[in-house]
Amino acid sequence: MNSRKDGHGDRQPLRVLVADKNAHFRETVRRVLTRLGRCVASGEASTIAEVIAQVTRARIDLLLLDVELVTSDRLAELKRLAKRLPDLKVAVLLSDDTPEYRQAVLVHGAHFSVAKASLEEQLPHVLSSVLAETATTPA
Fold first, then answer.
1. Number of H helices, E strands in the chain
2. Does 65 reside within a domain?
3. With CB atoms 3.0 to 4.6 Å apart as the test, which of 25, 40, 45, 135 could cross-link to 19 if both were Cys?
C-alpha cells in the first residue's frame, strides 16, 4: 500500500468504498465519514460484483462491507475476497453483533468488524488504525 502523503508532505484522506444493499444506510455511512473528516467516500456498491469492479479499478484504502452483501456462504465469500485482494483493508459491517460472529469474520479475512448499530462509536477506531498503518507503509 502506498504512503498516505501527497507531494507536499500533507496527509491524504483515506479512500473508502461503502458496500451495502441499503441505499439509505450507505448515505448514513457517507455522512458519518464526512463528519469524521479523515476520509472520503470514494464510491458505493450494492453488490459484491460492484465491489470487485471498483476495488480492482480504483485505489481504495478501506472497504466497509456489509456481511449481508456477500453470497449465502458469507464467510467463505469473505475469505475468497481477502485472498483475491490481500492489500485491501476490510471492515465488515455487522447487523448481528455477537462476539462469536465478530471472531468468525476476522478469521475469514476481515481486518475489522463494526456493529451497524454502533457505527459512529466504532468507526473512528477503524479509521485511526488504517491511517496509522498507511502512514508507516512506504510508497
1. 5, 5
2. yes
3. 45
Cell 472497504 -> residue: 63
Cell output for 130: 488504517
Q: Which three cell numbers, joined as nine digits, stand for 126? A: 477503524
Domain with 62 in it: 14-131
Q: What does the pLDDT average to over 111-115? A: 91
58-82 confidence digits (pLDDT tens): 888 999 999 887 655 666 777 777 7
pLDDT of residue 1: 40
- CA 86, CA 124: separation in Å to the nearest integer? 23
Rounded CA-CA distance 104/54 in Å is 25
What separation in angstroms does the CA of 80 have from each of 35, 52, 53, 64?
32, 11, 15, 16
CATH number at residue 126: 3.40.50.2300
Domain annotation covers residue 127 = yes
Indicate the DSSP class of residue 12.
P
Contact 92, 78 (CB under 8 A): yes
